[in-house]
Fold this protein.
Amino acid sequence: MGHKRSNSSLQIQEIPFTKWIGAIGDYFTLIFMVLISSVKKPPHFSLIRNQLYDIGVASLPVISITGFSTGIVLAAQSFFQLSGFGLTSVTGLMVAKAMMVEMGPVLTAFMITGRVGAAMCAELGTMRVTEQIDALRSMAVDPLSYLVAPRFIGGIFMMPLLTVYSCFMGIIGGYIVSVYYYGMDPTTFLDPLPTHIDNFDFFSGLIKSIFFGAIIVTISCYRGMQAHGGAAGVGRATTNSVVICYSVILISNFLITMTLNSFYPYLQKIAPWMVK
Amino acid sequence: MTEKKERKLKIRIRGLNKSYGSLHVLKDLNLDIYEGETLVVLGRSGVGKSVLLKQIIGIEKPDSGTIEVDGVNILKLSPSKKLLYYKQMGMLFQGAALFDSMNVGENTGFYLRQHGDPRTGWITKEEIITRSKEALAMVDLSGTENKMPSDLSGGMRKRAGLARLIVYRPDTMLFDEPTTGLDPITAMQINELIKKTKKELNATSIVVTHDIRSALEVGDQLALHHDGRIIHVADKKAFFQIDDPVIQAFIENASVGKRGNK
């Protein structure tokens, strides 16, 4: 008995770890298969168009609110905090830099996770538990190619555009608060932007947003396609997908930032236009 | 005896095993299905009847064993040949599995939109609409093209699911609990439709069910799935004369013993 008990306790410890490793393997296999199917047999344009609309156009109101409100808060805080040092003239630059490099990509990713990622996971999860995904397979239709690939393409195309839009809304919000509330001169707000914001800032935000788009879509679709256990299972999968997306976005944001920053000195040498 | 010699083997399953974790669902399962016949697999709920269908249609992969269709082991097919194999199979799922995001017409024409006509490989939009309407008419669902699946009753959903199969005329059709959850009259309609479809398409059919009335109605051959294995296969008359406590218990529990022994 003692021997058996130690075996079962070992199994209890092993199962979650092996499952965890297996899930990561499955997740990367899904990404690989989606990339292959997107290239080998690109999804029909109507499927991609629907996703571009759902992810992009339908998200504009929420991204507008997020970007604008973040911009006005950033401006208000910057102006308030910097006024003690006599540095209020850099308020515009702070708002623009923060929005383009960090706040824009991350907040857009968060909002898209909540609005689009959760819906994707719930939709695919429902399709899974009601055998609609099996029905696709039974009709010789690859679910990855039909369901995931259009969402993946839609995600990586729309996220950069939404991020740029979010940054734009943030800068407008910051401008309105700085100029119309704090009475800052418009040129003081705007003039430093072209001088001190380089292509690197712009592209690092875009690169992040592409990664975030891929992360949101693949995690949401993966969790949805793994859902089981009826409506409760779909609910669990959706909650998990949102939590995992947020965590992975935050962790990957740090890693991407460090990686991009480490390229900065090389870019100064090999592509000076990027850092101007 | 002569009739038996003329039967052509369509699907041959040998030594099929499938486990989910520690649960061993299919245990060295063997089964033969003959061309143009309807085999009904009877068994209690949860014994793995639907799992068997999913292995045959290729949605799931067994742990071991072989499934030969027309003499070809489908488990060893290349992806492109597997696609061809899928195209000749059709399955009616337990809950019909209609796509929620599409209306009934779009659901019915889905296969044709994806693959075109199975014989020519292409099809016009008008032809898809015409053939979808024809298929829906065949299952008495004319005029429901623009309805969403959520607007349909359980029986209508099953019929729409059947229309989705009829439209591309697969040569092997699998039915997963086609009458479960339906009232007796709707169940009878579904049984009639299965027979009608089989006759019109000359398809080989496998029906899994625990509904003996349905089994008697649609089946040419009956099989009993018990404890992960097919323990008996026989034609309708012979099946109920098999002296096996499992079959007798099954019949008695289903309260149709009298009818079955006739």
The longest helix of chain A spans residues 230-270. Residues 45-275 of chain A form one domain. The radius of gyration of chain A is 23 Å. Chain A touches chain B at residues 123, 126-127, 130-132, 134-135, 137-141 (CB under 8 Å).
